[in-house]
Design brief:
Elements: E1 16-22, H1 48-61, E2 65-70, H2 79-87, E3 94-99, H3 104-113, E4 118-122, H4 128-135, H5 140-153, E5 158-163, H6 173-183, E6 186-190, H7 209-219, E7 222-224, E8 237-241, E9 247-251, E10 264-267, E11 272-274, E12 283-284, H8 286-290, H9 295-307, H10 327-330
Bound molecules: S-adenosylmethionine and iron/sulfur cluster (SF4).
């Protein structure tokens, strides 16, 4: 039992917050956003002071883990300073960051010096041409360089997030596993979710987590890891390589939803609280913050929004309604 006051009507306790620091990005991944993506106005985006202020309120209510994400968090200047400030919040036990990796070449050391230790780098393919097709940018070698730089600086663990897509990267699943094993990265496969701006999501592009497990297991035998304690809230089902060379995780949100164990909430770059990736409503925290509302009032808004959290996503329901915002606007 945690001390969180963020408990919903289904008795789920929330201790995990994802904060999007910007919706902007230097990539245009096809499963996320179009080439001509329209970004938010600058003054709609939370300042670092506002992020830290809201983070303090969340931590007072029981949040103990924060992940910074985006858009691409490292396109925003000063993220190491933000990490330093967040690190000073008493009660916050863990800060992590999800990035497309390219900014690590120049920023890994500053991030490490600011106190960050855990990062996730998204990398779907090791093939330059496919990388360009997936991200609409020809920069695979820079992402690989960013990963190496992060390792040199001492980041541990380094997780590699991959979205596998049928017709694109299904033939590279085992190569990615080999790459992660050889470099001591923890590989996590995320099932493609209907959160793309271009509406390309569909069963013809979708690869179920089970299929990926079978492909990897056929070459590198895998054993499931039992998930107890805090780990039971981890959306990734873990499998250990039988030969002891690390593990691989599968975030199978579509085929094996983990909503019953969910302990996450999200804050968008424009200060809207979302209780689920697939929420169709949001709670505005930035407007009351800017209007000078007391912390207690904002805290009550958060408590009430969490209480009303939806039981689970409806991706597999016939009447599924796609959220208006895509992954980069929500903060993946
Ligand atoms: N720009 C950073 C990055 O790419 O890591 C952080 C933000 S990105 C939105 C966070 C994660 O969401 C990435 O791992 C990305 O692959 C994943 N993602 C984006 N769109 C997705 C979708 N439609 N389905 C599944 N994962 C998605
Ligand atoms: Fe940018 Fe990340 Fe979306 Fe790719 S997945 S377009 S890197 S925000």
């Amino acid at each position: 039992m945690t001390n969180t006051r963020l408990i919903d009507n289904f008795n789920r306790e929330h201790t995990n917050l994802r904060i999007s620091v910007t919706d902007q990005c230097n990539f245009r991944c096809i499963y996320c956003m179009p080439e001509d993506m329209q970004f938010m106005e600058d003054d709609a985006i939370m300042t670092f002071d506002e992020i830290v202020h809201l983070a303090r309120i969340f931590v007072d209510l029981g949040i103990n883990k924060i992940r910074l994400t985006g858009g691409e968090p490292l396109v925003r200047r000063g993220v190491p300073e933000l990490i330093k400030q967040l690190g000073e919040i008493k009660g916050l036990k863990d800060i992590s960051l999800t990035t497309n990796g390219i900014g690590l070449i120049t920023q890994a050391k500053d991030l490490y010096d600011a106190g960050l230790r855990r990062i996730n780098v998204s990398l779907d393919t090791l093939d330059e041409a496919k990388f360009e097709q997936m991200t609409r940018r020809k920069v695979l070698s820079k992402v690989l360089e960013g990963l190496q730089e992060a390792q040199r600086c001492g980041f541990d663990p380094i997780k590699v997030n991959a979205v596998a897509m049928k017709g694109f990267t299904d033939d590279e699943i085992v190569d990615l596993a080999k790459f992660a094993r050889d470099n001591a990265y923890q590989l996590r496969f995320i099932e493609f979710m209907p959160l793309d701006a271009d509406d390309i999501w569909g069963r013809n592009m979708f690869i179920p987590g089970k299929e990926i497990i079978n492909k990897i297991g056929a070459v590198y035998p895998l054993n499931p890891v039992s998930m107890n304690g805090d780990a039971k809230h981890d959306p990734a089902k873990l499998y250990q390589f039988e030969d002891g060379k690390g593990d691989v995780g599968f975030i199978s949100s579509v085929t094996e939803p983990f909503c019953e164990q969910c302990n996450r909430i999200r804050l968008t770059a424009d200060g809207q609280l979302r209780t689920c990736l697939f929420s169709i409503t949001e709670t505005d925290l930035l407007t009351p913050l800017r209007a000078g509302a007391p912390d207690e009032t904002i805290g009550d808004l958060i408590i009430e929004a969490v209480k009303q959290k939806e039981p689970g996503h409806q991706i597999n329901a016939v009447n599924f309604v796609k959220p208006k915002r895509n992954m980069s606007m929500i903060g993946g």
